[in-house]
Design brief:
Blueprint (H helix, E strand, L loop, with lengths): L8 E3 L7 H13 L5 E3 L20 E3 L7 E2 L11 E3 L7 E2 L12
Parallel strand pairs: 1-2, 2-3, 3-5, 4-6
């Protein structure tokens, strides 16, 4: 885990739905606070862990082509987030905790 703390980019490709992976991701978000880029494209997970806001320096979050259906309100607390790639994901709604002024499109 010590080596992972120095990473700035972490990409997962074609992850299959697995409760162990979800738990590991939750643990990663608790430990890794300096990531600037996180890729979960083509993921089968339906929700991001609510503690994603622990990754304080996250600037780029890619969940394109994923099965993500809802974003937790904690995404709105990612103050450094510049890019949120939602292309072709299965997003139905944003959390009620997220305010519309937190979301902008180019």
């Amino acid at each position: 885990m010590r080596r992972l703390k120095k990473l700035h980019t972490l990409m997962f490709f074609h992850y299959y739905n697995d409760p162990d992976f979800d738990l590991a991701l939750h643990h990663l978000f608790t430990e890794l606070k300096k990531h600037s880029c996180l890729g979960l494209s083509h993921s089968l997970m339906k929700e991001l862990p609510v503690n994603i806001d622990n990754v304080r320096h996250l600037r780029n979050l890619d969940v394109c082509y994923s099965n993500i259906e809802k974003l937790p309100g904690s995404v709105g607390r990612l103050y450094n987030l510049q890019v949120l790639d939602l292309r072709a994901c299965k997003l139905n709604s944003f959390s009620k905790d997220m305010q519309s002024d937190q979301l902008t499109t180019p």
